[in-house]
Specification:
Layout: E1 6-12, H1 18-25, H2 27-33, E2 37-42, E3 54-60, H3 66-77, E4 79-85, H4 87-91, H5 103-106, H6 114-117, E5 122-124, H7 131-142, H8 154-160, H9 185-188, H10 205-213, H11 218-224, H12 231-241
Length: 242
């Protein structure tokens, strides 16, 4: 059965473009996407790009200039559905760390996320994203379903993978407040969770501060909670929407 295709555009703002490479790197998934979508605009993936309107637009990266902010607002106007892809779009990304330094040392305005500027219909988090998750999101959108992220912490996946808890070993880790869906990939390799997927709905920040306070000084704790964006601000903003 031949299903009618929806139109799709994939845009990149300030980022390393790693999420786009993740999307392209698994060709089977991307090829399946093209069975349901006509990709009209994708600078990294094709030479000919067409102007909107679009049924769906994916935004990677965050707006880092007035020109990009204006472009983002224009994309919102001509797109029915907006999907923020990756930690930079979702929370501001690693570049948002400059928000915590005096502006005289940076010379640029504060970094903002895509949802800070425009209404975003869905977020696919991570640094980089999971190609399975962006595929699932696009399929849900195609069939007019509500795409939902897991409302579990990374600790749940750690237990499933029989990982030894880093916090119990006296090492900092943001797994208790970070949204699952990555299969605890960092902890599986012996590294701490740095929170690239954003805060889970029921994140207990007072307890997380208490835990980090036993291992790190106040400045170091703040750095951990702002690696990919201001975790507590993002959580409060998302909580207000719920």
């Amino acid at each position: 059965m031949n299903l009618p295709k929806k139109t799709l555009a994939i845009f990149s703002l300030t980022s390393c473009e790693g999420c786009q490479f993740e999307l392209l790197g698994f060709f089977d998934h991307f090829e399946k996407i093209t069975r349901f979508y006509n990709v009209l605009n994708f600078r990294l993936g094709q030479e000919e790009n067409l102007q909107g309107p679009y049924d769906v637009a994916i935004i990677e990266g965050n707006p880092d200039s007035q020109k990009q902010i204006d472009s983002l607002k224009e994309i919102r106007k001509i797109s029915k559905i907006i999907i923020g892809m990756g930690a930079c779009a979702h929370m501001g990304g690693i570049q948002s760390q400059r928000n915590h330094f005096p502006s005289k040392y940076i010379g640029k305005p504060s970094t903002k996320s895509v949802p800070d500027i425009i209404k975003t219909d869905f977020i696919v988090p991570g640094c980089p994203i999971s190609h399975q998750e962006i595929y699932r999101c696009l399929m849900d959108v195609y069939f007019d379903k509500v795409f939902e992220l897991p409302d579990l912490a990374v600790c749940f996946e750690c237990k499933q993978n029989n990982n030894e808890c880093l916090i119990k070993k006296g090492k900092p880790c943001l797994g208790p407040i970070t949204r699952a869906g990555c299969d605890s990939i960092c902890i599986n390799k012996g590294e701490a969770c740095l929170g690239c997927r954003g805060p889970v709905d029921q994140a207990n920040f007072p307890k997380m501060h208490e835990i980090l306070g036993t291992m790190l000084d106040e400045d170091e704790s703040k750095n951990w909670l702002t690696i990919y964006g201001d975790y507590e601000r993002i959580h409060k903003k998302d909580e207000h929407k719920r």
